[in-house]
Amino acid sequence: MDESILVCVYYGPNGERLIRRGHKLAQIMDCPLYVLTVDALPYDEFDADKSGFVEHWKELCEELDVEEFIIRDKEKRSVRAIKEVAHTHNITQIIIGQSAQNRWEEITKGSFVNVLLREISFIDLHIVSVDRTLKSTDDTIYEKGVRAFIQEDSEAPGQYRLKFTRSKHNLYEGIFYKEIGTDFNNGVFKFINNKGKTSQVHITENVCTGELKEPPNINNHSIH
Fold first, then answer.
1. For residues 133 and 51, what is the distance between their CA atoms, to the nearest angstrom?
2. Where is the signal peptide (predicted)?
3. How remote is the C-alpha of 209 from its chain's centroid?
4. 101 with 115: CB under 8 angstroms?
5. Burial of 14 (0-12, 13-18, 19+ CB in 10 A)
6. Which of 48, 121, 211, 217 is most buried by a 10 A CB count?
7. For residue 115, what are the contacts with CB-CB under 8 A and spacing of at least 6?
8. How would residue 133 be classed by pLDDT, with cut points 50, 70 and 90?
């Protein structure tokens, strides 16, 4: 059976992540990709934020050669809209964000996902986690944090690198938050300093690009 993918986006920066996830899947399956957003309001009544996200999604869809970006405004029932679009375009795979129940509409009987599965049982549903992220003041979105370490580069004294395994050479222990949408280890390393407060340093391709002003938080180490 020929495959066809539909990404459902509603609001906020997570929409880009979902679209890019759909694009990767479409490339792997060599199939068309469609993007849908549904809103109860008429398009000309969208607020500035929603309009901004819609314009960004349109540009992203053009950049990624998405088959069609679909807006269903003045639509009170999002499940019905998704079902109709899926039927029209012979969709076999749907991608939605994990927080869809809160952001699409209030469903009084059963969860959004269960209602969707009941209405379109012939389609595979991919649910992408979008809640466990860190948002910075500049609106960069990061993945869920993972345990990580910082140690001095033995071949480049004075340069500090991100590591993910325990070692006697580690100077700092903390949590690394990787930027969404990058294949490299770019992001923020957060750690608790010796005064019990949170500090952070930016990481670019595994290397600390910010100055480590705090002393190491792992015992028996010091920066010379």
1. 23
2. none
3. 23
4. no
5. buried
6. 217
7. 79, 107, 109
8. very low
**Are residues 223 and 171 in contact, defined by beta-carbon separation less than 8 angstroms?**
yes
Torsion angle (degrees, nearest 10) of CA 104, 105, 109, 115: -30
Per-residue model confidence (pLDDT) at position 102: 44
Contact 34, 4 (CB under 8 A): yes
Residue type at 222 in one-letter notation: S
Report how far residue 74's alpha carbon sits from residue 106's, in angstroms, rounded to the nearest whole number: 16
Closest CA to 123 of 97, 84, 67: 84
Q: Which of 131, 151, 134 is nearest to 187 (CA)?
A: 134
CB 113 within 8 A of CB 105: no
Please report, to the nearest 10 degrees, the dihedral formed by the alpha carbons of residues 160, 163, 169, 173 taken in order: 90
pLDDT in tens, 86-115: 999 999 999 987 654 444 444 434 567 777
Beta strands 170-178; 146-152: pairing state? antiparallel
**Segment 47-56 long-range contacts (CB within 8 Å, at least 24 positions apart):** 49/11, 50/11, 53/11, 53/12, 53/13, 53/15, 56/15, 56/16
**Bridge partners of 204?**
207
State the amino acid at position 10 in one-letter form.
Y
